[in-house]
Amino acid sequence: MSVPRTLGELRRSQFSEERLRTRRVKDELRDNLLAHLRENGDAAVFPGIVGYDDTVVPQIINAILSRHNFILLGLRGQAKSRILRALTTLLDPEMPYLAGCEIHDDPYQPICRRCREEVGRLGDDIPIAYLSPDDRYVEKLATPDVTIADLIGDIDPIKAARGGHELSSELTVHYGLLPRANRGIFAINELPDLAGKIQVGLFNIMQEGDVQIKGYPIRLPLDVALVFSANPEDYTARGKIITPLKDRIGSEIRTHYPATVEEGVAITAQEAWTRRNGNALDLPNYVQEVIERVAFAAREDKKIDKRSGVSQRLPISAMENVISNAERRAIRNQEKLVVPRISDIYAALPAITGKLELEYEGEMKGADFVGRELIRTAIAKTYDEYYTGANVQQIVQWFDLGGEIQLSDAVSAEEALEKLQGIQGLIEKLGPLGVSPKDSREQQVSAAEFILEGLHAHKRIGRSEERVFKAGEKKPEPVREKSFEADDRPYRQRRQFN
């Protein structure tokens, strides 16, 4: 069925219903959300958003059902922009507007002078065009140099000269981003970075629903859903949201980092580029968990600035680097299967250190030192998930008796497995990781190396910077100091004898 192409055809179509003719964008979001909730419940309101089902998503649903303008408040890497962009899924598949209109005027109620004149001249023959949901989403990153003209608009003297109009005419207006978002969603990211005097320019559109341009009595009753994002760190680092603007924002919704390692793994698996066009990839669960726990450990470490946060981009970038290092090793050694190892995580340090804002103590020790410490902590916690209570004394004893083995991140699986099979009891302990001697050499090497790294993380065996695993440093026997009674006994005996 063809869609209406003129105003006359539109009046005779489904778009002629009173409900559709008078419905504003916030009502549209609400209606479509209600329809989704009736059919699917809260599930998949925002596709691809993991970990917010019981916290953030219900609050956003409440804000939309309340027809609120809202703000997402959270640290970097918490999917704020992604959620705002996902709001387009709640818009109608297509929306009619007067063709050629810069602010997408409603065919039934045009608000700009040009469209009113065109409707008066052409009547029902005026052409109609359509917007997709993505066309109705306008996003602006707030920066200190944003002006009122950027957001609202300005008088264009060139347009006035060419058309022979007076500067006070509506026909000379160059519309800003906000009017161009009419009948859609307008998002401002990092709102505190917007200068205070520019934030004031949003008052009218949020409360009275209109804007005025350049002091002329041009009133534009826009229909816009306003949404914002902000980082709490920005309140002190660069700027703040002025109080009257905060008062006009209907809901303030706080985002957060993944609450569990499982949620973090799911997010990273979804976002990281793991489907390469090279060799087949087998990504072990324990490697994924170690990478994710690096971010969890960093968020708790005192050497890292908690106000800045540790973005979820850290494990995503680290995962991609880990796979790339394993891929490079496989190509160099002509192996068919790519299986990342723990050594690949250490090789991915450049993807980790760049995501950390260090405190003074961390700066003194250096980003590489802090990064290695975080990886070691993550390995220890992951090792405990698989091997708590396991008897690995035979492996430790092999090293205590003088055994040594070097495993660089570039060594082939064949060469590495030959060395690892010489360690007494090691290959027999791969079961908890889901690996057996029947599996590929690449999988066995990765699992065996994880066990050695876990023992090293718990200081049961040692490892040099050249990745030589060896016996751990023996703790010196504590020196027993003689007690006062023991030192004094001969003196007392002499006194008794006397």
Structural features, described:
The chain is of the alpha/beta class and 498 residues long. It folds into two domains: 7-254, 3-Layer(aba) Sandwich (Rossmann fold); 261-471. 44% of the residues lie in helices and 11% in strands. It is built from 24 helices and 14 strands. It has helices at 7-11, 18-22, 25-40, 56-65, 80-86, 113-122, 148-151, 157-163, 177-180, 196-200, 203-207, 234-237, 243-248, 261-271, 285-300, 313-332, 342-347, 349-353, 360-365, 367-387, 393-400, 413-420, 441-457, 484-497; strands at 70-73, 95-98, 128-131, 137-141, 153-155, 173-175, 184-189, 224-230, 251-254, 280-281, 337-338, 405-406, 461-463, 468-471. The strands form five sheets. It has a five-stranded parallel β-sheet. A hairpin with a 4-residue loop joins strand 13 (461-463) and strand 14. The protein is elongated, with a radius of gyration of 32 Å. The N and C termini lie far apart (123 Å).
